[in-house]
Design brief:
Elements: H1 2-24, H2 31-54, H3 59-89
Helix pairs in contact: 2-3
């Protein structure tokens, strides 16, 4: 049991370091498309949370599944709101050019 926990913790720490290194190497012009893609992938989390919440595995599982649905939905919606804000920064103003 302790070995499995130690291996899992090691993998988590390595994934954290690798993820940080990969993200810091991304140029700013790619942040918006990558964020949109990751928000779409986060929708899978909502589906998984719905599956967990829908199973009748006990009261605790239903409560945790419901909390997961709420938090995953907030994550996806918030991500798309931030992406929309970022995209608005790149839109041309209608007032520019005398139109």
């Amino acid at each position: 049991m302790v070995e499995i926990l130690l291996i899992s913790l090691t993998i988590f720490m390595l994934a954290t370091f690798v993820g940080f290194e990969v993200i810091t190497k991304v140029p700013p012009t790619l942040h918006t498309p990558l964020m949109s893609g990751s928000n779409a992938i986060s929708g899978i989390t909502v589906v998984g949370a719905l599956v967990v919440a829908g199973r009748s595995g006990g009261t605790l599982a239903i409560i945790l599944g419901t909390a997961a649905v709420v938090l995953a939905t907030i994550n996806v919606v918030g991500g798309f709101v931030v992406t929309d804000r970022m995209l608005r920064m790149f839109r041309r103003s209608d007032r520019a050019g005398g139109r």
